[in-house]
Amino acid sequence: MLSDYNTIMPKRNSIKVYGADQYYHIYNRGVAKQDIFREASDYYYFLSLFKRHLSPEQAVDSAGRKIVSYRDEVDLVAFCLMPNHFHLLCYLKQPDGIITLMRSVMTAYTMYFNKKYGRTGGLYEGVFLASRITNDAYLWHVTRYIHLNPMDLGRDYRSYPYSSLGYFAGTSHASWLAANRLVESSKDQTEYLEFVADYETMHQDMKLLKNLLAD
Fold first, then answer.
1. Up-side HSE of residue 62: CA atoms within 13 Å toward CB?
2. 206 lies in a domain?
3. Alpha helices in 39-185, H assignment, sequence order
4. Does 2 map to a domain?
5. Of 80, 179, 181, 92, nearest in space to 132 by CA
6. Is the Cβ–Cβ distance between 76 and 98 less than 8 Å?
7. From CA 5, how far away is CA 110, in angstroms rounded?
8. Which domain range does residue 83 map to?
9. Total structural domains in the chain?
10. Could you give phi then psi for residue 28, rounded to 5 degrees?
11. Model confidence over 67-107: pLDDT tens digits?
12. N or C: which end of the chain has fewer CB within 10 A?
């Protein structure tokens, strides 16, 4: 899989130099917009790769070898996995942490997916994109955008199983996800859910308008 190295590095027109103590919106989609998640087990396997690299407990592979931890380099704060793309919000503790983490996760997932579905070649449409979050207001708006993504599938974003909204609501907990960077208390959780709900109608209206203009 060494040939995949260049396909999982940032694009030339995206972030070239990452900064520590910064938030980044990371996203990518399947080649030719094809699905990269076909079954529930695919979504869970993708997330399990972040769990094994970001958990405080040392993870090992099937042979008992230690798996590299990126916990001191990157925090995964929020996520939403859609059939043909994904969105992540990450906080970088070390400048290049996101490159090494995404290289590990995306390569391992490609190997898993290709073996499972009997395919070969690259899985993603080019390389992952990264957008630096420049202020706190933008940060909350990005997480809201991420968590409302299931509405594009006609799904209820509140119960969508492949997003981090439950961790922001306090109904789910995981040591490998740092949602508490944005919601540290029950008051924060309530305010955040109200913030997301406030945009729900506008999100629906924008989607309708987009569809009308496309006709």
1. 0
2. yes
3. 40-54, 97-117, 136-148, 165-169
4. no
5. 92
6. no
7. 12
8. 7-214
9. 1
10. -165, 165
11. 999 999 999 999 999 999 999 999 999 988 899 999 999 99
12. C
